[in-house]
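FAQ: What does the model actually see?

It sees only this:
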Amino acid sequence: MENGQILDTLVNTLSQPLSALPPVATALGMFIMNSVFNFFVSSGSGQAAIMMPIQTPLADMIGIFRQVSVLAFQFGDGFSNVLYPTSGPLMASLAVAGVSWIKWAKWFMPLFLIWSAIACILLTIAVLINLGPF
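And it is asked to produce this:
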């Protein structure tokens, strides 16, 4: 994106509507965006290579600290890796255990929703206490 000279345009375009929102809503949006994006790119390092060049300047432009942006990334990447069928380690583990993904998803979904609610609470606290810079 940087070589194609679209990164700055993309970040500026995203920051315009998000700047009208409260910082807490933006942090929660980053968490949700990373959770959804993790379905398509399940590799943590691959997702970081794609998302962090967008999220870091976006956080700067919107007025939240970079640590909150990284926290949203970590929550979005980490929690959904244990749910999405595009996660290779999850599917390998389920195959070895002899558990179908449908059965796993039905069992795990309540825990995933609890973790997501806790992540939203922690992100809200992080924004309110101005977590960072370290």
